[in-house]
């Protein structure tokens, strides 16, 4: 009995153990497709987690900055310069102009003796508030690969034997029912392969156009929320380059470099700073008003460090020269930044005209900071002190894109940007500019 | 394929390189389809198992420690894939069976392998009831013990032995039938 069993076992084992059958080529296509999908999914998860992490960190810093540096404006004082610059009076914000007159009587006498040679740098909260200007889809063309369709028809089964002395034989199914079942399956396979080919074609198209480069220029109006009505925003131009990575059909991630400028036009601030009658002594005061110019010691963004050659710094009386400023001079402060945004973009439609939302966070590095005299010609006279170099902002936009060709689109994107932290390190100044702008640009998919 | 070459391909596969995966597939797919055919009822089912099996191979290739035969490792995955499907799709409520051999169904001792074509042998195995087919293939063709079979199929050792015996008996009968039919045809000719 044992021998019988061994015999029947060896009969099948010898024949079937080394059996090799060439599989249908579609089997590999299906395996490869699934592995590629798994790789894409894994990559997508990594990108999503990284983005979420980066966004969380940025948001955390934004909130931290906001809570840490969102303090009440500190006491604002008036500083008056004379040739004896060491006698600078600092008055509390609550002090009135009358108080100023009384407290500075001595200095005013000195001023009157130095007719026309002084520049006043004054600072008063009420005056300050009133007068200082605060500042893309794819082609629908679907190509079916000939090979994949041809290969979808089973070629049969090749039976190869491992033994060197055995000749490979074609495995034939003799039972009619089984043959029929195989034929039906072949038809099903063709349908399935067509569907797979279509799906793959879509994925290929998406993969082909996953990356895009976007060049943009922008014009934006910027201002600051705490600016008084006397101040007005400025309109500036910027631009830059972004890279777009499609996470899926709808969602994309964008980053890049953008140049921006924010600031404020402090129209007439010098005039207002010449607070009419600082001395309170009739004629002498009139003389002062004609020959001296009052400039603010700070704006809402921070203290001003005057650097102009003919502008007197409060700490350098020896450089004080006759004022070249009239009371009609205008001042402007501006901050030029390089921004690295991280944006998530969601496509609402992706036809010839595409509509999308975008939102995210940007890191802004202040590369230029200046206070300018703008009457007549623009001249830099100083800059804001103690600024935070890196600042964070939130960004929102609603964009429109028009497809010129499968690869090229032009776009228009109204956007809003708001700084999450005060750009000044000091708690005395809470300056968070915002800007409303329109980006126009061209996008190239690759 | 040389061992060194295979080792490099396996390493590349563990890094997710699709070209290496394709090379590995081309090397082992025909043999593994042969394995899958023994555990399936037809070619389509076998190719499904082959596909699922290779996806598992690529997903878990990092766990291969280069100890033992790589082909054996793949083969094990293919068999496990077939078993997994079998467990899911088939009713596994197998009762213990007592089997007594039929004295009339003894095979001819002079049967040679070359007397029966491979496709006929394969059809005979595929024509067995599923549980007999599984047990016979595991025991005879892939070298599983009854203890191992009882574990992977979640049956008792006795049931495994019984199923094997019944499977053998059916196969013996089929072999005899085939040879008789063949002999008759020759006589007619």
UniProtKB/TrEMBL annotation, chain B:
Residues 24-90 form the RNA polymerase sigma-70 region domain. SUPFAM superfamilies: Sigma2 domain of RNA polymerase sigma factors, Sigma3 and sigma4 domains of RNA polymerase sigma factors. GO terms for biological process: DNA-templated transcription initiation. It comes from Marinifilum flexuosum. PANTHER family: RNA POLYMERASE ECF-TYPE SIGMA FACTO, RNA POLYMERASE SIGMA-70 FACTOR ECF SUBFAMILY. It holds the Pfam family Sigma70_r4_2. This is RNA polymerase sigma-70 factor (ECF subfamily). Belongs to the sigma-70 factor family. ECF subfamily. Keywords: Sigma factor, Transcription, Transcription regulation. InterPro entries: RNA_pol_sigma-70-like, RNA_pol_sigma-70_dom, RNA_pol_sigma70_r2, RNA_pol_sigma70_r4_t2, RNA_pol_sigma_r2, RNA_pol_sigma_r3/r4-like, WH-like_DNA-bd_sf. One of its GO terms (molecular function) is sigma factor activity. Gene3D superfamilies: 1.10.1740.10, Winged helix-like DNA-binding domain superfamily/Winged helix DNA-binding domain. Residues 119-169 form the RNA polymerase sigma factor 70 region 4 type domain.
């Amino acid at each position: 009995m044992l021998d019988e069993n061994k015999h029947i076992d060896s009969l099948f084992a010898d024949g079937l153990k080394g059996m090799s059958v060439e599989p249908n080529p579609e089997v590999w296509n299906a395996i490869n497709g699934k592995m590629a999908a798994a790789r894409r999914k894994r990559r997508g998860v990594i990108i999503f987690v990284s983005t979420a992490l980066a966004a969380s960190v940025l948001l955390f810093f934004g909130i931290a900055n906001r809570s840490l540096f969102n303090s009440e404006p500190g006491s604002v004082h008036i500083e008056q310069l004379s040739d004896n610059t060491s006698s600078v009076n600092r008055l509390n914000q609550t002090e009135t102009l009358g108080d100023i007159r009384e407290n500075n009587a001595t200095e005013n006498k000195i001023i009157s003796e130095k007719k026309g040679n002084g520049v006043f740098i004054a600072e008063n909260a009420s005056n300050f508030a009133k007068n200082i200007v605060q500042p893309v889809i794819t082609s629908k063309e679907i190509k079916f690969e000939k090979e994949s369709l041809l290969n979808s028809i089973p070629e049969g089964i090749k039976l190869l034997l491992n033994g060197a002395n055995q000749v490979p034989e074609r495995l034939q199914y003799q039972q009619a029912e089984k043959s029929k079942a195989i034929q039906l399956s072949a038809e099903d396979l063709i349908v399935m392969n067509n569907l797979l080919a279509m799906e793959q074609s879509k994925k290929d198209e998406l993969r082909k156009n996953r990356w895009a480069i976007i060049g943009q220029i922008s014009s934006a109006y910027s201002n600051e929320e705490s600016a008084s009505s006397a101040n007005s925003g400025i309109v500036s131009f910027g631009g830059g380059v972004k890279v777009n990575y499609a996470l899926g059909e709808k969602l994309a991630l964008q980053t890049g470099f953008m140049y921006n400028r924010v600031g404020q036009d402090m129209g007439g601030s010098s005039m207002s700073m010449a607070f009419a009658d600082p001395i309170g002594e009739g004629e002498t005061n009139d003389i002062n008003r004609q020959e001296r110019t009052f400039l603010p010691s700070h704006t809402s963004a921070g203290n001003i460090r005057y650097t102009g050659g003919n502008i007197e710094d409060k700490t350098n009386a020896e450089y004080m020269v006759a004022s070249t400023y009239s009371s009609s001079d205008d001042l402007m402060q501006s901050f030029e930044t390089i921004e690295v945004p991280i944006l998530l973009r969601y496509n609402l439609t992706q036809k010839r005209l595409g509509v999308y939302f975008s939102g995210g966070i940007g890191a802004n590095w202040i590369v230029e900071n200046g206070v300018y005299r703008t009457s007549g010609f623009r001249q830099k006279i100083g800059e804001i002190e103690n600024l935070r170099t890196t600042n964070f902002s939130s960004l929102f936009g609603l964009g429109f894109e028009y497809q010129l060709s499968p690869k090229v689109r032009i776009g228009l994107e109204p956007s809003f940007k708001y700084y999450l932290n005060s750009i000044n390190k000091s708690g005395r100044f809470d300056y968070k500019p915002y800007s409303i702008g329109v980006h126009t640009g061209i996008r190239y998919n690759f | 394929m040389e061992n060194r070459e295979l080792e490099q391909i396996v390493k590349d596969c563990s890094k997710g390189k699709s070209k290496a995966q394709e090379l590995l597939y081309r090397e082992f797919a025909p043999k593994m389809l042969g394995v899958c055919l023994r555990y399936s009822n037809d070619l389509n089912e076998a190719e499904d198992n082959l596909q699922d099996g290779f996806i598992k191979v690529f997903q878990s290739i990092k766990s291969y420690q280069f100890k033992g035969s790589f082909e054996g490792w793949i083969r094990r995955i293919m068999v496990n894939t077939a078993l997994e499907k079998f467990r899911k799709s088939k009713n596994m409520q197998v009762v213990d069976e007592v089997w007594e051999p039929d004295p009339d169904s003894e095979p001819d001792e002079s049967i040679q392998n070359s007397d029966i074509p491979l496709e006929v042998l394969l059809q005979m195995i595929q024509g067995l009831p599923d549980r007999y087919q599984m047990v016979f293939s595991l025991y005879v063709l892939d070298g599983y013990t009854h203890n191992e079979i009882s574990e992977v199929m979640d049956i008792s050792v006795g049931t495994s032995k019984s199923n094997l015996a019944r499977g053998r008996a059916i196969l013996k009968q089929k072999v005899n039938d085939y040879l008789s039919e063949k002999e008759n045809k020759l006589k007619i000719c």
